[in-house]
Queue: 2 jobs
Job 1
Amino acid sequence: MALDITTFSNIINNELTSTAQTRHSINPANRQPNPEVPVSTAEDLDRAVTAARQAFRPWSRASFEERRKSLRAFAEAIQANADTLAQLLTQEQGKPLSQSHQELGMAVEWAQSLPTLDIPETVVVNTEDRQVIQRYTPIGVCGAIVPWNFPVLLAVGKIVPSVYTGNTVIVKPSPYTPYCGLKLGELAAKCFPPGVVQVLSGGDDLGPMITEHAGIDKISFTGSSVTGRRVMASCAKTLKRVTLELGGNDPCIICEDVDIDAVIPKIGILSFLCSSQICMMIKRLYVHEKIYDAFREKLVQFVQALKVGDGTEPDVFFGPVQNGMQYDKAKNLFASLSSEGLNAVLGGSIPESKGYFIPPTIIDNPPETSRVVQEEPFAPILPLMKWSDEDEVLARANDSDMGLGASVWTRDMVRGRRMADQLEAGSVWVNAHFEVSWNAPFGGHKSSGIGTEWGVNGLTQYCNSQTLHLIKSA
Ligand code: NAD
């Protein structure tokens, strides 16, 4: 099916439905309005929950093969519309078209691959008179709450595991980026029975309505740590299962033995991709003092050659930040550079522009206590810091409330493994950062989250654990 990307509706029980009120977000590259989208009410949500509960029983009893068939159709539908969706993604999110295509490619891969994983069933006791089996059963209706930085991949990354494991799902995109999420719902309506995948867009009150709703059994939330705490408190009232994928302030430690020229392009990209609006970007860069000056100079050279502009223009690497709230937060952080007496070796100020553009900025050796080190900027500003002692740099890297990702870069794999073993984060890399895969569980330590998504471990989090005791005599 060809997608119309000029009109947008909710998808409830496989029907396109409108709402009395509508709203729109804006294109961050030029601050022009994007099309109108529904503003869902409590009644819209009730209708979706009723449909999801009705769909749950037959869907949870369908075989894995039947569910795989629908998921294959869904993956094919996304693939067939990838060009249109990538264009829409750039229009709503601001990321360069090449990065939108990468996000669509990953979403298709996730949708094709996650359903190839088998969910384990473990025989824990097997004797003459009894068998005890641990297995996983679906939970019920899932609420999928998605942020604005990866509106496609993170929606698909919640839809696929929830329905593959036998649940039904109601997706809520971010009010800043509702467009691709609604279109994913339209595609899903052609692939799944009514009520299995539904998408509702709304204002700021829709998220709390979902987390409060007694007819929803599990929430998978990706967003900030501040909101994650609210989500968990709200879910506690109905004892919903909850997975939280939250913010990060990832450290990256560069040892003195690296090949600087080979590493610089990787570090440059892994610090600034999507204008640094990725939970797992490098956000604190620790460089050994023996190579610090040369590294800083080459990193500045590399990053300043990357083009800033509208994501639809060719060769742009830095699109705008996604929304006015994020832009204002970044301006506030940039103001701390002068009030804290910090030295920007690249960028350092935000000139007026027609969109939410922020020039890439690198800060030279700020103190650990400075805001740019302590906070998650979610904007293209990177603190570069010196270190000399291994234990000391590991302590600095771990001295954070966050624990999403962390990396060590060295040619000495024994040293790399030794340092990696001491890093407190859900994903730890040696000579890489932000490598994620559909078959590897992903999640945060400390305030970066609870639980995991993706991989077999992620799939089981959309399930209840059930222990079957089969006593052979009656
Ligand atoms: P956010 O927390 O503001 O919003 C995330 C989603 O939650 C949106 O859909 C929003 O409408 C909804 N929401 C807001 N208040 C709610 C409430 N009280 N109850 C229920 N839902 C509510 O986050 P954001 O600004 O959209 O995203 C940026 C943040 O997300 C960053 O901190 C980033 O690190 C984090 N993030 C984490 C991951 C991860 O996997 N760990 C991935 C991407 C982004």
Job 2
Amino acid sequence: MTDLKRIAVVPGDGIGPEVIDAGLAMLKAATEKRGRAFEWVHKDWGAEKWLREGVGIPEGGLKDLEENYDAVYFGALGDPRIPDMAHGREILLGMRFGLDLFVNMRPVELVAAEFCPLKNKGPDEVNFIVFRENTEDLYVSVGGNFKKNTPDEVAVDESVHTRKGVERIIRYAFEFAKSQGRRKVTLGDKSNAVRFGGSLWQRTFKAVAAEYPNIDTDHFFVDVLAMELVRRPEHFDVIVTGNLFGDILSDLGAGLVGGLGLAASGNLHPGKIALFEPVHGSAPDIAGEDKANPIAAALTGAMMMTYLGENDIAQAIQESVQEVIAAREVTSDLGGALGTKAAGEALTQRVLGKL
Ligand code: NAD
Ligand code: IPM
Ligand code: MN
């Protein structure tokens, strides 16, 4: 019996299709060389479909993902013609919330010291992982307008935190630390100002931490945490935080390792389908120019391969990323001269050489 894996491929908007094409070519070549049975099913969910049909995820789309797929490989959404990102809320947040993917895992690993904007910091100093809660907080779209479009307009966005939601992401971070031999879990919150949710995070963190006596813990208010990530990134190992803070800190993390062209992420819920996407957006400023760095999408693919049990492929991708960077077979954001396609092909050749 073949162990067929089905992956939904959602390239999305802007540079999404460019980096996903490159990443997918690499993943197809690698899985074929390994003799693995993968089916890659494209979904045209994104701005074009939204503008044409008013549809984000077609009726039954989430159920289909849950029942018939092992993972989603996603590019990015974002189109200047949809300034409020309505389609992004429906498609991306629709998948995160609708599939209850409560873990947003965003590793920050410096591959080459030259890409770190901090002086005297290398791969040993910049190596942490952000676990961002992915289903609550200010992202829930609970709120509304009052007296809209008048001088007295009121806008309210509620920040929702539940015991269940906070506890499961904190526990996931501790379980990850325990299983990966990590030494410390740091909580980032704003409990000095955001009273009720902050207190819930504080109390829940302490309660869960007590179950993991062998793992160190510490806490920073998120403003100081941002400063300390820049000042002494080596202090951090595993960071757990809320949805909005995690969004911001993970882009800061990308800045420490060479930019968004290198940052990968996974949206997870153990036992369910998972969604893998680069941290970056659709980058309209470079879209369609063959300039986007495909490495974030490639590392995202590696994360997906690990999740699917294809550790040898994941490792080949990670090693190949290091090699193409060392050989300068990279795009202009990393000081190279290659376009997206050529950089992707260089990566694929190296991956194939290892399998
Ligand atoms: P962005 O991540 O798209 O781009 C920020 C900067 O990083 C730009 O200068 C861009 O050129 C550069 N960049 C990003 N990815 C790159 C890559 N792979 N290679 C080289 N350079 C890269 O963020 P933004 O400009 O704030 O947002 C653009 C659109 O993307 C918005 O509509 C936003 O809402 C959306 N967005 C979507 C996602 C997602 O779908 N997951 C994530 C972030 C932003
Ligand atoms: C990300 C993005 C999204 C987020 C946007 C596009 C809704 O910035 O994946 O980091 O805020 O989660
Ligand atoms: Mn973001």
